[in-house]
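TL;DR need structure tokens for one chain.
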Amino acid sequence: MPTTDDYSRFNPEGSPLRMHQLRMLDMLEYIDSVCRKHGIPYWLSSGTLIGAVRHGGFIPWDDDVDIEMMDSDYRRLIGVLAEEAPAKDYAVQTTATDPEFLFPFAKFRDLHSFLEEYNGLDSLLLYRGCYIDIFTLTPSSSRLLHRLGCKLLGTEIKMRVHHPRLRWLNALIRGVLHHAVFPAMRCVTSIKAGRRVRHKIPSFFSAPRDLSDIFPLSEVEFEGRRFMAPGSCDAYLRKIYGDYMRLPDPDQIQVHTSQVILNP
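>> reply
TL;DR here they are.
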């Protein structure tokens, strides 16, 4: 059985990963302050929430931050951040601000850093600093349809990265998928969804969330600060990950980022 000491090698104080985490913590505090100021509900999600519950902060090897919100609140937050974030040297990366960003959610980027992901699929992006994923949730009754959207999106991204000269074909694929196929999928999967929600199609995360586990929101401690969280963190996490308190084999852990450069 692994112990806490088996994971301390990932992010000791002063290490590149720990400095990366602290930069993201500053960004998260900023988003939290904006959301509280404007009354916009959000909550820590995925690995960030596991870190809060299991570690009281970042999972030792984690190199990103995830938050979620409902689609209507997401649109409000993106509007506010578009006006206020540039003054703090942050950027909001969406399909509207970066022509190579194809997701229906946003990445909140730090403009004084640079990172590379191991899979290389971020190579064409305009903004490549440290980020927080801001995921938007919509009603969803079909995991199969969601996974199909994921596969289509993955194929599209690989086409654009590996065949950038095929501009006409990439433009055609983008038009068909994002203006016809994906909107149709969202419409179909919203039927009889009830209180079940998922990340907005297309997304790489198809696990369902139940609104009764999320609302009303609570708070959780993360790195000595208080942030918004699902009302029942345990129910939320168990439905997605099962036994989320069980630590993985430290030798099997992989991180997303191959290089991080942090500037003052």
